Amino acid sequence: MDLGRFETGLNVQDIGRSLAFYKTLGFQQVDGGVDIGCVGLRKGDCRLTLYQGHLDPPETQLIFWQGDVEAIGRALIDQGLTLERGPNKDDKGAALMIMDPDRHPIFIINMPVNFVDEPQYARKSPPYRPTRLKPDKRLGWFELSLVAQDIARSRAFYEKLGFRLAGTGDDGRSVTLQNNDCRIGLYQNVLDPAETQLTFWQGEVEAVARDLGRKGLSFERAPALHDDGGVGALLRDPDGHLIYFVNMPGGVRAEPA
Fold first, then answer.
1. Exposed/middle/buried for residue 45 (C-beta within 10 Å: 0-12, 13-18, 19+)
2. Same domain, residue pair 176 and 148
3. Which residues lie below 8 Å from residue 71, measured CB to CB, with a gap of 6+?
4. Global confidence as pTM
5. Does a structural domain hold residue 254?
6. Do both 232 and 161 map to the same domain?
7. pLDDT reading at 77 higher than 90
8. What does the alpha-carbon distance between residue 77 and residue 71 come to, in Å, rounded to a whole number?
9. For the segment 121-134, what is each residue's pLDDT rounded down to a tens digit?
10. 105 and 183 assigned to the same domain
């Protein structure tokens, strides 16, 4: 099932402040504007959009753009899943929302015109084509890490959404799943703290930390060695969203079979 182009939607309190923070991390603005409370950012294979006053519920969301919302909705219902909202359709587009087993919101939307209510930004939406973005060489590849209470249940849910298994942890408490350009990690009793995290794998953790320190950012956890020889560092953005940089010896980006 092709859900559409993926982005991680972050709820922010001060979009100008958050934009400055992510630009310090090296993200480039690719869409939207501070004045409309919506800014799209990209670095490597990570797409983020900062939303001030737009997200409902006001929490981190998995957002998929320009897929066939009505067909996706029918397919999900046929598989026994319950939609939180929609599918709804009007002259502005179509949308639906579904919650995963741990209440992480997944929003699927198709709009023929982007920013239809903002004349200075409004434009025809470009055609969607499935793609795979290249990871940033310095930060590493991006995964959205989600807390799961029951790893088997959550994996089964995402597989119904068309995700395919890309890897499993040795302890059976984590899995990596992928659907086109969306890559997520599900973790049961692993994430510390147990919150949604923007995770960048196999980058130059210590060099990145030094660079960000020179730019005035402070880490919640400075780069530190793990018992297995890996290194990790934890940063929070201005709204408390967690960003985790990790490099594990021998770690490779596994692809779905």
1. buried
2. yes
3. none
4. 0.95
5. no
6. yes
7. yes
8. 10
9. 999 998 888 888 89
10. no
